[in-house]
Hints:
It is a single chain. By secondary structure, this protein is mainly alpha-helical. It is 46% helix and 11% strand. It has helices at 66-70, 79-83, 90-105, 113-141, 145-165, 186-211, 214-220, 228-233, 238-242, 276-300, 304-309, 319-325, 342-354, 394-406, 413-421, 425-429, and strands spanning 26-30, 42-48, 51-58, 174-175, 178-179, 361-369, 372-380, 388-392. The longest helix is centred in the first third of the chain and has 29 residues, at 113-141. The protein is globular and about 100 Å long. The termini are far apart. Residues 307-330 have low confidence and may be disordered.
Amino acid sequence: xxxxxxxxxxxxxxxxxxxxxxxxxxxxxxxxxxxxxxxxxxxxxxxxxxxxxxxxxxxxxxxxxxxxxxxxxxxxxxxxxxxxxxxxxxxxxxxxxxxxxxxxxxxxxxxxxxxxxxxxxxxxxxxxxxxxxxxxxxxxxxxxxxxxxxxxxxxxxxxxxxxxxxxxxxxxxxxxxxxxxxxxxxxxxxxxxxxxxxxxxxxxxxxxxxxxxxxxxxxxxxxxxxxxxxxxxxxxxxxxxxxxxxxxxxxxxxxxxxxxxxxxxxxxxxxxxxxxxxxxxxxxxxxxxxxxxxxxxxxxxxxxxxxxxxxxxxxxxxxxxxxxxxxxxxxxxxxxxxxxxxxxxxxxxxxxxxxxxxxxxxxxxxxxxxxxxxxxxxxxxxxxxxxxxxxxxxxxxxxxxxxxxxxxxxxxxxxxxxxxxxxxxxxxxx
Length: 430
């Protein structure tokens, strides 16, 4: 067989004469329809290759005018709006508003039975929020298994929401100076106790799987770091601020502690690096601490008074809320006929529809929501509706901190940083 020689095509320029070409930076839209944006966030990202040079957040795609709508409603009818702000931590938002209303009415209590139950539900809501944050964050990075385990526990928490309010998410459970007692009984508290013990085991499994995963650590350690000055300047709070070592938790400050947290034994956890991994660790530790708080509250609720109140199949008198809040005289409502009398029903309807007339004044109350400091400011003009209502939400400040966190990182790291911040855009746009 004859061998033939093939002449391959040669480039028109000599070898080793390639010249470096400078790549110009280009602009790319991240969102607002992006599966890992955790809402309708639009980031205008300036990239040099895959490195982020600049990121400009654009919000406003979900704006609903919540603060102005509240000014047209009575104080009691404004409660459901707060479920729809941060719709992953519903009852804590209600708590902030109720505390602000109580500050206007000058009826704040730290020892009442409903205050302890509020603390219990606040911490259950904190677990509910952090489980979703952990599940979505791990899914964004590429780890799917923790999502299924976390959502199993979330389902049990949503069942608790449904048992006390009839709704799985938007509970409208809290009331100024009270709450809805309809679904509370001895069996409910027993089920919460069982959940707290089971959730501890599930968290341990999730934590072990993630902390032993080298890919998880590679994607989080050193990514999205901030320093102390940035955290203070941008008004960071919650796990974001505690990740840089700022010891600020409104549940533990003696001057700002609300509800009955000062009667409990609580620990606060701080980070050192201020990166995404520190924020992950803080949220996991906070869930453990929330379980501890829930068990302490349940232990306090086992005294003789509570055991008598929450007998099996018993209901707390719902009219007591109106008697207290609307300052109804004792002889004005006949206890025997208040559920059957037409006159009582008319009076009840009149009081409810008119609402409480709060005295003139100003109040601002902040609580430690799962994402950070959640504050509600109310200006009262003496009517049954707020003259002004302004809401301070943590995710709004963290969104503006996002460009500082992603600068100098890869495009893929934006997803990791957003997940570590735990932003919800109902909380941002309002």
